[in-house]
């Protein structure tokens, strides 16, 4: 690779050859492999197109290689603000009202009557879809977990975002309100197995 880089730097015709070959290989990966984006587009794999690009229209709107690069905003992209975790993170010891508030911010409820404030003492919770579960406050508040029944498959993040403001913070800035597709376990079969 060092030799190729050395020659490409000094011999323009060699560089062109390397660039053409690289482009050809990458195009083959994208267009001929079943896990390639170009392959999905050419073969009508709309679920993958929607999951990765939002919609077929958004995919088709991507400009060609010759288009000027967009100006990159400083900062860290669409999600510019610190997430709210639904409770006062500066508070030394939390109480049951903090747990209730955090649950409400996740579209659900804390069902426990009382809490000592021990983050490792399991409490009872209910999610926005009525599933009940027991989980340590640490797991909910610090580790970002929530209802195990709502974990995919099926993956239906838009429905969760509709009811869970905590999750909506990361979903809505990156997804169109019209993106309503549910992904089933079988939806991974198109790229499963082989190489
Ligand atoms: Zn749930």
Layout of helices and strands, plus pairs?
Layout: H1 2-10, H2 12-32, H3 37-42, H4 46-53, H5 56-60, H6 96-105, E1 109-110, E2 123-126, E3 132-135, H7 137-142, H8 157-163, H9 165-171
Antiparallel strand pairs: 1-2, 2-3
Helix pairs in contact: 1-2, 8-9
Bound molecules: zinc ion.
Explain what you see:
With 195 residues, this protein is mainly α. It has two domains: 1-62, no CATH class; 96-171, no CATH class. The protein contains nine helices and three strands; from the N terminus they run H-H-H-H-H-H-E-E-E-H-H-H. The protein has helices at 2-10, 12-32, 37-42, 46-53, 56-60, 96-105, 137-142, 157-163, 165-171, and strands at 109-110, 123-126, 132-135. It is elongated. It starts with a helix and ends in a 24-residue tail after the last helix. Zinc ion binds next to loops.
Task: Please supply descriptive tags for the structure shown above.
195 residues; mainly alpha; 2 domains; three-stranded antiparallel sheet; binds zinc ion
Bound molecules: zinc ion
**Share of helical residues:** 40-55%
Q: If helices are DSSP runs of H or I spanning 4 or more residues, what is the number of helices?
A: 9
Strand order of the largest sheet: 1-2-3
Q: What structural class do you assign from the helix and strand content? A: mainly alpha
Q: Which spans of ≥5 residues are poorly predicted at pLDDT below 50? A: none
Radius of gyration over C-alpha positions, nearest whole angstrom? 24 Å
State the total count of DSSP E strands.
3
Mean pLDDT: 91
Strand content: 5-15%
How would the global form be characterised? elongated
Biggest beta sheet attributes: 3 strands, antiparallel
The number of domains is 2
Spell the H/E element sequence: HHHHHHEEEHHH
End-to-end CA span? 25 Å
